[in-house]
Amino acid sequence: MHSAPPMLATLVLALALALGLGSLARWLRLPPLFGYLLAGIVIGPHSPGFVGDAALTATMAEVGVALLLFGVGLHFRLRDLRAVWRVALPGAVLQTGIAALLGGLLGAAGFGLGPGAALVFGLALGISSTVVATRMLAEAGQIGGPAGQIALGWLVVQDLLAVLALVLVPAASRAETEGLAAALLGAALELLGFALCVLLIGRRGLPALLLWFARAPSRELFTLGVIVAALGTAYAASELFHVSFALGAFFAGMLLGESDLGHQAAAEAMPLQRVFAALFFVSVGMLLEPAALLAAPLLSVGALLVVLLGIGGASFLLLLAARIPPGMAAAVAGALGQIAEFSFLLTSYAIAQGLLPPEANAPVLAAAFGSILVLPLSQRGFAALGERIAGSAAWYRWDHARPGIGFALPEVEGLADHAILIGYGRVGAVVAEALRCHGLAVVVVEADRLAAERAKARGLDTIWGDASRAEVLRAARPETARLAVLALPDAAAARRVLQLVRAANPEVLAAVRAHDDAEMALLQAEDCVGLAVMGEREIALGICDFALRRLGVEVDAVQATIDRLRAGLPAGTAASG
Questions:
Q1: What is the SS3 assignment for 273?
Q2: What parts of the sequence cross the membrane (predicted)?
Q3: Burial class of residue 256, CB neighbours in 10 A (0-12, 13-18, 19+)
């Protein structure tokens, strides 16, 4: 009798448990990653029953981390930081420093860590999860507002600090023998060599190579090319420059993100990234040893307090010091007050490098579990505190103090009141030309690479990618658009795009191309659809109009017949009068 190999059993059970417990966590209004961590505990070596292959899961987890950082690199834009840099840059650096100091003191007291190891342990407790924070802001309806912009800028700075921390880990592990300054210098030179190689060779070479696949008729070749670019660059960085596998993937994402291939590359990589990221959280959960938590409960509680005070509390106070309104500061701090993926990555990597003892994993995991679990309570607590401060005399005096002390929040630049044209085929090209003739702002989203290049050659703002993928459509800023024109030949894709547009902006009006009577009826029932057009019917009506006029039917009667036919009613007998 044939039995499944242990590798296959581990993979299937890990994914199945991640799905089931992730769904349960979502039902409890917790992030799915909380369920993924629980799945890892269930199949881990410290729980009874089936024990998964830890080495296999760890290998797949490393791929997941690389794809996770590849996605961060794809979305990393200096312009995201520029809009709120006066608040986010100093605030995030100071907040991370405060949390790292508190966490370092905890690590030194609990594990007797040296300066380098204590710094890495503190950084693991000082960097928020971008996934959790953005989801919390989105559920609160604040992701597109000022609070969301500040939080996103803050997270960008934290992500950059996390990437630098990956460089610090091997440097800090050598610091015990070489000295911290010499170790950091060596790591910086290796990183500089890799960065120069990537920028001089990869900046043009990588996008050019993927552009060749993008122009090919086979979409799966481009998808495969994106994954090979991410993991291939990561592997080369690890083998040639002794840079971490994950950091190499980040650089690959950053290079592609600067090109117009970035949006579609993010959409293609996202499904695989989510699967492997789930396996990463499962592998982290497998490391959790309940006995270690029971052996050092004070360290676990201390780590949780470092996260709540060093991230949430420090962020709140720093935003108030920058004269950000208390309600907005509370929303940002409430979303940031947790840790997850980068904290796990730093801790696991530092343990593998021999910098941190294996026991250091338990308090970091406890802090992650606890901070995510109490996040709804901490959000409500910050909101209540913000309301109280906003009505106090002390805040009034501080907010109206002499100018020049705090930071002013600049307005976020971007598209507004524009039209989004989905599809630049025979229909879309005519619509785009009409809008451009009248000087109206229009953004074209086109899935065919050659058609997108034609639109760009006409001077149109063009995004290449499949608009039915949220990562691509988001680049067209549907939340600030006035009109969406869906000139797509695929009815299913058009419905999917319409759902995404409505989710981003319920007020937007849409003009949609339909393909049959049933599709017309469905589209016309949508509140946001201002016009639904079926191409074949309009061609027939145009011919009817010409024929009736040529045969002597009066203009009013012709129009009445056309209107009735367009509405799907019998034309009846036109009376001449």
A1: helix
A2: 54-76, 88-111, 117-138, 150-173, 179-201, 221-237, 275-295, 301-322
A3: buried
Which amino acid appears at position 476 of this protein? A
pLDDT digits (tens, 9 = 90+) for 341-364: 788 878 888 888 888 888 888 899
Both ends of the chain: CA-CA distance in Å? 88
Is the separation of the CB atoms in 210 and 255 below 8 Å? no
- The b/e string for 278-310 (b: 16+ C-beta within 10 A; e otherwise) is bbbbbbbbbbbbeebbeebeebbebbbbbbbbb
Pairing of strands 419-422, 483-486: parallel
**Model confidence pLDDT, tens digit, residues 358-401:** 888 889 988 988 888 888 889 899 999 998 998 888 887 887 76
Structural domain boundaries in the chain: 52-393, 419-534
In eight-state DSSP terms, residue 359 is G
Q: Is 540 left (phi over 0), alpha (psi -120 to 50) or beta?
A: alpha
| pTM of full prediction above 0.70 | no
Q: What's the pLDDT band for 76 if we cut at 50, 70, 90?
A: low
Strand ranges of the sheet holding 442-446, from the earlier edge strand across to the other edge: 461-464, 442-446, 419-422, 483-486, 509-514, 529-534
Q: What does the alpha-carbon distance between residue 320 and residue 302 come to, in Å, rounded to a whole number? A: 25
Checking if the pLDDT of 103 tops 90, the result is yes
Is residue 51 classed as helix, strand or coil in its secondary structure?
Answer: coil
SS3 label, residue 375: helix
Measured N-to-C along each axis, helices 361-373 and 262-287 cross at an angle, to the nearest 10 degrees, of 120
Place of tokens 């070749």: 221
Sign of CA dihedral 463, 468, 469, 471: positive
The β-bridge partners of 191 are none
- Name the amino acid, one letter, at 103: G
Q: What is the pLDDT of residues 514-543, one digit of tens each?
A: 766 666 666 665 666 667 777 777 778 788
Task: List C-alpha distances in Å: 562 to 513, 529, 555.
Answer: 19, 21, 11
The percent of the chain in helix, strand and coil, each rounded to the nearest 5, is: 70, 5, 25
**Cα(496)–Cα(494) distance, integer angstroms:** 5
Backbone angles phi and psi of 98, in degrees to 5: -65, -45
Identify the CATH homologous superfamily for domain 419-534.
NAD(P)-binding Rossmann-like Domain (3.40.50.720)
* 8-state DSSP, 577: -
Give, in order, the Cα–Cα distances in Å from 567 to each of 131, 433, 487, 541: 47, 28, 21, 11
Token code pair at residue 312: 């949430």
Find, among 7, 60, 15, 58, the residue nearest to 39 by Cα. Answer: 15
Domain made up of 52-393: CATH architecture: Up-down Bundle (1.20)
Portion of the chain with pLDDT greater than 90, in percent: 15
Integer Cα distance of 132 and 270 in angstroms: 16
CB under 8 Å to 193, separation ≥6 — which residues?
Answer: 241
**What pLDDT is stored for residue 469 in this prediction?**
82
Residue from 496, 471, 484, 494 nearest 261 by CA: 471
* CB 444 within 8 Å of CB 432: yes
